[in-house]
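RECORD TYPE: inverse folding
INPUT: structure tokens
STRUCTURE:
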């Protein structure tokens, strides 16, 4: 099937992220971002970009003090670093580079409040062409037919969704509740 996510070409790359070997904007090794930041400001420190509060980041992007490429590249690189440590990414939203190019064509009067701001989405939010598993295997390989309302609003305001992150806390909460319930009721001894 021709899905927008390009999953038919996906495999787990060096970073352990689905589709990481084909990530368009960053490399999967311990190198700097590839294509996106080559065109950006080479002297910029990604850490300085990542430490900006949302309001400041959005303002600098709107005023073109920062390029869309340098910000997206910084966030993608950081997402890879964090994923290598805690295994948090479930999907890469490859269309982020297309969204970036579309945003660059907008007039200043057409830009939304989140113009160019990279965002990660929890796995529960539908993003067209991508699975929303909620951590459950039964929802694998069932990509969303369209973007969910929250994703539509974020995109309409100029945000760039770049990755989906897992939600293990939901599963653990359920397990802990059941164990706590069993222990309090004294029913564990029956097993």
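DESIGNED SEQUENCE:
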């Amino acid at each position: 099937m021709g899905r927008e996510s390009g999953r038919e070409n996906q495999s787990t790359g060096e970073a352990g992220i689905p589709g990481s070997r084909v990530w368009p904007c960053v490399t999967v090794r311990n190198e700097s971002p590839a294509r996106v930041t080559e065109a950006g400001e080479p002297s910029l420190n990604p850490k300085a970009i990542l430490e900006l509060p949302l309001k400041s980041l959005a303002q600098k992007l709107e005023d073109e003090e920062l390029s869309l490429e340098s910000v997206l590249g910084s966030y993608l690189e950081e997402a890879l670093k964090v994923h290598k440590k805690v295994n948090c990414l479930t999907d890469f939203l490859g269309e982020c580079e297309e969204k970036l190019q579309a945003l660059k064509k907008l007039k200043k009067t057409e830009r939304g409040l989140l113009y160019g701001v990279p965002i990660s989405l929890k796995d529960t939010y539908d993003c067209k062409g991508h699975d929303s598993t909620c951590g459950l295997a039964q929802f694998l390989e069932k990509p969303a037919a369209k973007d969910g309302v929250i994703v539509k609003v974020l995109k309409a305001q100029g945000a760039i969704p770049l990755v989906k992150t897992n939600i293990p806390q939901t599963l653990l909460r359920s397990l802990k509740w059941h164990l706590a319930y069993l222990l309090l009721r004294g029913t564990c001894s029956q097993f």
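NOTES: Helices lie at 35-38, 46-50, 54-62, 68-86, 96-104, 149-156, 168-185.
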